[in-house]
Amino acid sequence: MLTAVILFILGFVFLIFGGNWFVDGSTGVAKRYHIPELLIGATVVSIGTTLPEVMVSATSAAKGIGDIAYGNAIGSIICNTALISALTIAIKPADVEKKELFKPVAYFFTAAVIYVATSYITGYFSRITGIVLLVIFATYMFTTVRSVLQGGVSADTSDVNIEQKDENSTNKGFQDSLLFDILKIAVGATLITIGANLLVDNGTIIATALGVPTSVIALTFVALGTSLPELVTAITSLAKGHGALSLGNIIGANLFNLVLVSGVSMTIQPFHIPVEKTIGGINASLVVDIPVMLGVMLLLTVPSIIKGKLYRLQGILLLATYAGYVIFQFAM
What pTM does this model have? Predict the structure, then answer.
């Protein structure tokens, strides 16, 4: 049991460092070939920083552990919205750009309609559903890249801010070389893969030993672990006085969790929605997990789009919701 816990934590560490190195290396290569920074944010960084969630869910789906594939995606959305974003809003509310939020929000709820309909009608996430979600992802990426190239709306960097670098920098040496960037990509991808396997395998062992449903571990601990990049971004943005910026990052990350993370998992290996707990004879996922996911996203985005402002009350309500959600997961 102790070994499983240590390896589980090690998996988190590998995911965090692997994700950072993969993004840094990819961004370095892209900039070296003079690709516009906004385009890097819309593609390389967006996908790279979502790799922890993608790899964890894809690995679990391939191993036939659909509970983790499901719980990681849904849990990450809830954690991003009701914990990470809520903290920044509760501490320091800010104004937001309504126009920049509308597109990712519209895509998220479009995908959510498909996800929810599938959950309640069939309870089975088929390969077709996964492909449809991936098509939505591809469409979002295409329209975002096109907007950037045409000088339209600013790109959503999804999870992180790209560190500004001085183009006139004269730093030399191995750490400023193309080879070093490629090395970071390779090492980062390797660590992400190893970390995902450690997380899935040992998360399952821990859940079994504690008698806790695997989906609960995925909806809470795994989801929080794979959402650490968003947490770091939120804290950094808040410290620099850009609290509203983290909102766009969170919404972008949530969209990617729904269409990319879930889409890849379903396409690799279709699975049924977990039925490990019931409420009044009804699957708890349908009564709690999915409604909470939709509820916190609506609470976060609707006032922001209508008023163009974040309110401290939003953050407090979201935090209270997350606390209640976690308590429910382990109490039931």
Answer: 0.75
